[in-house]
Amino acid sequence: MDPKKVNPASHLPASRISINLGNERVFVKIEEIYYIEKAGRQTLIHCVNEKFKTRETLQELEQRLGTGFFRSHKSYIININRVERIVSFPGSSYYEVKFEDYKGKALLSRDRVHELTGLLER
Q1: Distance between CA atoms of 58 and 43, rounded to whole angstroms?
Q2: What is the pLDDT of residues 51-104, one digit of tens each?
Q3: Exposed/middle/buried for 44, CB within 10 Å: 0-12, 13-18, 19+?
Q4: How many angstroms separate the CA atoms of 53 and 41, rounded?
Q5: For 6, phi and psi rounded to 5 degrees?
Q6: CB 45 within 8 A of CB 19
Q7: Which domains does the chain carry?
Q8: Sequence-separated (6 or more) residues with CB below 8 Å from residue 12
Q9: Which of residues 56 and 4 earns the better pLDDT score?
Q10: pTM to 2 decimals?
Q11: Which of 5, 66, 77, 83 has minimal CB crowding within 10 Å?
Q12: What is the pLDDT of residue 75?
């Protein structure tokens, strides 16, 4: 490959992700995503100014998101850079993850709490 023809942007981590909304494709800045949630047949992407509904699976989105995201529960992917606190519920099999400046909450499985805590303490 000719080094002069290499696109330098192709070596940078993605700053946006495209989301298929059926009849349109929207481009969302990765840092604006709080979390992604599976709700029935839909996947909800909770962002700073908007919530998007898509039929894309969590697995499809997870493969495109990169290292700043963490599969906290079978139905949730969270942006670890947006996490503010983790709240436990005695006798429950999960925790709640709360985010900076956002009312929505994601679930965190008990078996993933130590892994997430380790990522957040870096």
Answers
A1: 7
A2: 999 999 999 999 989 889 999 999 999 999 999 999 997 888 899 999 989 999
A3: middle
A4: 10
A5: -75, 130
A6: yes
A7: 3-120 (2.40.50.1020)
A8: none
A9: 56
A10: 0.84
A11: 5
A12: 97
Query: Where do we find the tokens 């909450």?
Result: 105
Contacts within 8 Å (CB) and 24+ apart, 66-69: 66/13, 66/14, 66/30, 67/13, 68/30, 68/31, 69/33
**pLDDT digit string, tens, across residues 14-56:** 789 999 888 999 999 999 999 999 999 999 999 999 999 999 9
What secondary structure, in 3-state letters, does the chain show? CCHHHCCHHHHCCCCEEEEECCCCEEEEEHHHEEEEEEECCEEEEEECCCEEEECCCHHHHHHHHCCCEEEEECCEEEEHHHEEEEEECCCCCEEEEEECCEEEEEEEEHHHHHHHHHHHCC
Using the structure block, give the residue that is written with the tokens 């298929």: 20
Q: What letter represents residue 77's amino acid?
A: I
Looking at residue 6, what is its pLDDT? 47
Chain CA centroid to CA 102, Å: 14
